[in-house]
């Protein structure tokens, strides 16, 4: 069953497990899902960039096939770690983002060959200098930066360059990469550090249907004794899962509250005009969230897939299986 065209997809970060998203997207697009918005963070931002370019040119299927190939064949340490003298002197990270940018500069123009369909791309970054907003009328600092691109940004070199910079910044894992300078935001790091699965960004756009793809399961098993990289990986899992859990709980609670309001209309407590006024006042609407994720934790830590092709193939296959199993069109799938 194909979804309506006004549908957003949220692509979470997962470091090497981003291969799961490539497999899932390949199946969803093959099943006829049409997307108008793409939101990404961390490795999900790289997937989001190529997917959005494919949507723009009417070649989403080509984009997802290419994503599968890139993750399977090219997602190795040697293909994106670029050591330099600066790395050794500054020690703000092992690598700059030169090879990540080169990959985007090579792959996106191959896909974004025409201006066919509208698309909006939103990429999350962690701004080291902070961004001043306000809370209660007083200045307050947030570190979550959101960079938005649409339509024509994919149609010329200048627009694409801005997209490449945003995607490289969002995927710049701390200590592994240097921060990437983003115009108006300054040095930026991995967007997963501030919002790894930015569901609310898609919901805020007024769309009623959001597909969320994450390589993390709904339920985690209790670990054995953790040391070294396994402990680091577990802490990353905790940070990611807790934000997702809160966002999904909020969506579920919003749907439940709206159902109770509609029940008041059904029993005559509120008439249609009153119900509409209440909904406008609270600014709420039903949110259809379709989750695409594995049933159990994927093998290996967050980085292991960069060393083992068989793991990346396993992640891709798991993504395909998860997307094939999703009953598209459910009001709320968790």
List the helices and strands and how they pair.
Elements: E1 8-11, H1 19-30, E2 37-41, H2 43-56, H3 60-74, H4 77-80, H5 85-90, E3 93-95, H6 98-111, E4 120-135, E5 138-150, H7 157-170, E6 175-177, E7 180-182, E8 186-189, H8 192-195, H9 199-203, E9 209-213, H10 228-266, H11 272-282, E10 288-292, H12 309-325, E11 332-333
Parallel strand pairs: 1-2, 1-9, 2-4, 3-6, 9-10, 10-11
Antiparallel strand pairs: 4-5, 4-8, 7-8
Helix pairs in contact: 1-3, 1-12, 2-3, 2-6, 2-7, 3-12, 6-7, 10-11
* End-to-end C-alpha gap: 18 Å
Largest sheet: 9 strands, mixed
- Poorly predicted runs are 330-334
User: Could you estimate the helical fraction of the residues in percent?
Assistant: 40-55%
Please trace the helix and strand order, writing H or E for each element: EHEHHHHEHEEHEEEHHEHHEHE
Average of pLDDT: 85
- Overall, the morphology is globular
Percent of sequence in beta strands = 15-25%
The computed structural class is alpha/beta
Give the C-alpha Rg.
20 Å
Number of helices: 12
Tell me the total number of β-strands.
11
